[in-house]
Amino acid sequence: MGGVKYIGSFLWCAIFLYYVSINTISVLGISAEQDLSLTPRELQALTQFREIMKPRLEKEHDYMKTDIYLIRWLRAKNLNIRQAENMLMENLKWRKQYNLDGIHNEDWSDMFLDYPYTNDTYDLAGRPIGAFSLSDWDFRKAIAAGKQVRLFRYMIKLLDEATNGVLRLQREGKNVTQWKVLMNMEGFNLVQHGCGSCLPGFSYFVQAYENYYPGFADAIVAINSPAAFQVVLNLVRPVFTAQTRESLKVFGTNRAQWMAYLDKEISRDQRYPEYGGTRKLKH
C-alpha cells in the first residue's frame, strides 16, 4: 500500500512499546491545550504551509484544511515545509489508492469475531480509547488461513476509526485532538505473535502509522507485557521516530504499577475488568 505493502495491526503497536517505555512509564501524555499550542516557529511554518496546501486540499475533506491537522505533518517533519508537503500528498494518494474513505462500509464481521476490540470508552480528557487483548488475537492463524492482507487492512481500519472518533468529537465542539490505545499483552508468545512471517507486517504497520496518522496517538499503553516481548522489539526498534517513542507506555505484570498509571488517565468506569475497571462488556 504505497510503500506499505503489508500493514500490521494495533497488535503490532504493542510490539514497539516495550523498549522505549520500560524506563519511562510514569510519563503522561500532553493535554489538548498543549497539542493545540503553537510556538512562534510553528505558527510561521503553519502560515506558509496552509497557503501552499490550500489549492491542493480544495476538494478534500474539510478536516484536512484545519490547523490542527496541518500542523501534524509539519511536526512530523520538524517544520520542514517541503517534506511536510510531500508527506501529506503521499497520504492523500494512499487514501485514494486503497479507498480509505470506504473502508468502514466493508463487512468486517468475520474479522471482528477472531480479532475483537472495543472503542466505546474515553479517558479523563475525553479522548477515545481503542482497546484489545492480545490473548484474543492470533496473528499467525490469519497468515496460515491466507488472511494476512485482509487482517492488515482491518488494522488500518482501526487506526482510521480511532482518528474519525477524534474528528467527530471536534465537530461536536469537544476539545479533543488525539486518541489512546490500551492493550493487554498477557498471552504474548513468539509462535503466535512474533513468528518470522508476522514481523514484516509489524514493520509496515509502524510505517503506516507514522506516515499516515502522525501525532494522533496521545498514548499507546501496554500492560502485562512478558519478557518474550523484548525479543521482538529488538528486531524492530530502528523504525521508530522520536514522536512515536514519546507516546509509548509499557508495563510488565506488576498490577499495582499499571493500575496507578491507568487511574491517573482513565476512570475505572471507562475500563473493562482486565484493565482494572468496572465497565461491563455489552453482549
Structure summarized in a few sentences:
By secondary structure, this protein is α/β, with parallel strands linked by helices.
Order of helices and strands: HHHHHHHEEHHEHEHHEH
The CATH topology name of the largest domain reads Phosphatidylinositol Transfer Protein Sec14p
CATH class of the largest domain: Alpha Beta
Roughly how many Å is the radius of gyration? 18 Å
Number of helix segments? Answer: 13
Class by SSE composition: alpha/beta
N-to-C span: 35 Å
The strand line-up of the biggest sheet is 1-2-3-4-5
Principal-axis shape: globular
Low-confidence runs (pLDDT<50, min 5 residues)? 1-28
Proportion of residues in β-strands: 5-15%
CATH superfamily of the largest domain: CRAL-TRIO lipid binding domain
In percent, how helical is the residue content?
40-55%
Instruction: Compute the number of structural domains.
Output: 2
CATH architecture of the largest domain: 3-Layer(aba) Sandwich
Domain CRAL-TRIO: 122-283
Transmembrane segments: 6-31
GO cellular component, one term: cytoplasm
Keywords: Membrane, Transmembrane, Transmembrane helix
